[in-house]
Write a sequence for this structure.
């Protein structure tokens, strides 16, 4: 064989081994559960939702917060949030807008709406007490299989599996399967293995948290710390040197550019003009500076002035706008390209309130309630999406 052929032969990965016999599999699952629970007892992060006595309502809040938000960020926001909404009844009475305001800065605001809807359902269907089993938890608005399993196991000791991206990655590496995390085959395998392992654990809640913690801290997407992994000897990916190839990379859809031109308007009393976004779509129901959106090109100063009603009679110099700032915000499917404008002269309040989308209209983006002047103190109590909080409050 040629040198090149020898090199190719040596670099070829071994074939994926078949499944273990059932008796061997059960023995391995028990060993994995014991090793992982011991590791977690020694290495678990001190996080504010990991309390000695776990409450299913507080567990539900933390699990919904942790969806698509890093634990370090949730740790900063969780204590104040649970103080504001200590029970489902308190959240249900507070209303969606207050919940959205408390959630401001966390992103993915649909989670806050789902949490409020779940609180209302708990009050209506369960006398204000959060369910303690996965089946009834999963019947709540916005609660899927993962969240229901996490709350039921962690707060209530139920033997229910959980699978998020971290858990799926750990399972795929343990099994040596180079699949994409979100592929149907990968998800089926992950749920099957997670269920078998949690059934072998002595403490299902601690085991599930340990599995997630391992994926977050050790079995990371890039540069996994295999030397520190308590499951190293059970891991086929580590044995084959295939950690970098498992999971297979996900196919990412390209974000499309959209253009949002926001105008910062203050009256002679220091109030700021805001409007509420539509009840569906991006940043649904949140408040913002008057914003003209275009899917194709950035709105310019003249177009903005006309749209706002800043023509004759709107005030001296009111027809002129100057560019104040530009920045981009990446969302799941869009790259929102913001331009922020300010007027060069004073603005007559009546002009911008009666312009298209003004008071009594449909809102600049089709939202309810039109435009309103708000004081800085009132602004701080509104549900502002992060980019508009930056514009209106400076952070």
């Amino acid at each position: 064989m040629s040198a090149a052929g020898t090199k190719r032969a040596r670099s070829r990965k071994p074939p994926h081994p078949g499944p273990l016999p059932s008796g061997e599999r059960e023995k391995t699952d028990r060993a994995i559960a014991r090793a992982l629970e011991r590791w977690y007892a020694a290495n678990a992060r001190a996080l504010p939702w990991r309390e000695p006595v776990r409450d299913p309502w507080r567990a539900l809040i933390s699990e919904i917060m942790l969806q698509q938000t890093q634990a370090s960020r949730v740790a900063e926001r969780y204590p104040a949030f649970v103080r504001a909404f200590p029970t489902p009844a308190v959240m249900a009475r507070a209303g969606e807008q207050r919940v959205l305001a408390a959630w401001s800065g966390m992103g993915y605001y649909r989670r806050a709406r789902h949490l409020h809807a779940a609180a209302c359902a708990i009050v209506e269907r369960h006398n204000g007490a959060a369910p303690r089993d996965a089946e009834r938890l999963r019947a709540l608005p916005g609660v899927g299989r993962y969240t229901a399993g996490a709350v039921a196991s962690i707060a209530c000791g139920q033997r229910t599996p959980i699978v998020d991206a971290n858990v799926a990655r750990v399972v795929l590496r343990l099994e040596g399967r180079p699949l994409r995390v979100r592929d149907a085959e990968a998800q089926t395998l992950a749920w099957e293995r997670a269920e078998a392992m949690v059934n072998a654990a002595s403490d299902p809640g601690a085991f599930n948290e340990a599995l997630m913690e391992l994926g977050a801290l050790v079995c990371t997407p890039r540069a996994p710390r295999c030397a520190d992994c308590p499951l190293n000897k059970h891991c086929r990916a580590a044995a084959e040197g295939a950690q970098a190839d498992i999971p297979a990379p996900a196919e990412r859809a390209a974000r499309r550019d959209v253009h949002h031109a926001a105008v910062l308007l203050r009256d002679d009393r220091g109030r700021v003009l805001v409007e509420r976004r539509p009840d569906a779509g991006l940043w649904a129901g949140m408040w913002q500076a008057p914003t003209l959106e275009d899917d194709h090109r950035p709105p310019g100063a003249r177009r903005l002035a006309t749209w706002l009603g800043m023509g004759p009679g709107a005030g001296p110099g009111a027809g002129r706008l100057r560019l104040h700032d530009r920045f981009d915000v990446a969302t799941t499917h869009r790259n929102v390209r913001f331009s922020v404008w300010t007027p060069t002269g004073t603005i007559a309040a009546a002009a911008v309130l009666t312009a298209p989308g003004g008071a009594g209209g449909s809102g600049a983006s089709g939202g309810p309630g039109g435009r309103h002047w708000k004081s800085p103190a009132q602004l701080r109590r509104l549900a502002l999406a992060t980019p508009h909080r930056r514009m209106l409050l400076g952070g």
